[in-house]
Amino acid sequence: MSDTGGKNEVSPGRTPRADTIGRRGFLTSGLAGLLAAGLWPGGLEGQNPSEQFQFVAMNDTHFRDDKDIQYFQQLAEQIKGTEGAADFILHAGDIVDGGLVTQLGAMKSFFESLHKPYHLVPGNHDVDSGDGSLRSYRKVFGKREANAWFVHKGWQFVGLDSTEGTKWENVQIQAANLAWLHETLAKLDRREPLILFTHIPLGSGVRYQAANADAVLSMFVEHNLKAIINGHFHGYTMRGYRGAGITTDRCLSQWRANMDGSLEKGYFRCTVAAGQVGREFISFDFKT
What we know:
- 23% of the residues lie in helices and 22% in strands.
- It has helices at residues 23-28, 30-36, 69-82, 101-113, 135-141, 175-187, 213-218, and strands at residues 53-58, 86-91, 118-120, 148-152, 155-159, 193-197, 224-229, 237-241, 244-248, 266-273, 276-283.
């Protein structure tokens, strides 16, 4: 989000949105209850629906400087201690706070310390503030592209670069990235389950939703879309799209506040089982 300075800041002039679903509402609502139980309805079953695995999905870590090192060391220890069953890590953007090589390099070290494969998409804070490019992002992460896809145990994952420079609201996912998505989806198996992750939210009515979210989602109509994982809005939201659950999560930064009024920081433990995707929020409590 926009730089405001100071600890646990929210964008100026903005207050937590009242329509964000709280924990109690999440657990008691019908569709959300299924999601919490790991049973999101809808979509075609993949060819290997019995394949089970877990992964960690995080967003908005916003690494700034050396004052964050101990924080992320503790986070790494928690993930290594409690998420041993996870096959890989997903990060839905705003990895760092200022798009600097030093910041991105520190987070690369964090990811590597987890000793698991990791897959990223950039957020608006991962963009160079000077020229609005992803030059530093690509310099640090090498050949890793801002757009990427991979297959894991029969499940297809698509990471889409949703940035428009450093812009943080009314964002248009750029034409070049939409062209990449169109070409990539043509290569994928429409029968197999698919998970999409972006930084800018795609869920209907979610604060900071991409201005062309509907156009992006329409590209998946003929695919077996099972889940969409987003960041940018620092808070829990859940929406549905043709049987797929679209979520944002609380941020995982010690400097920036959640925008839904919640205080917890953490990440999703995602469980894939019986052809469905479940998400469980795992809290991280930094001990100074």
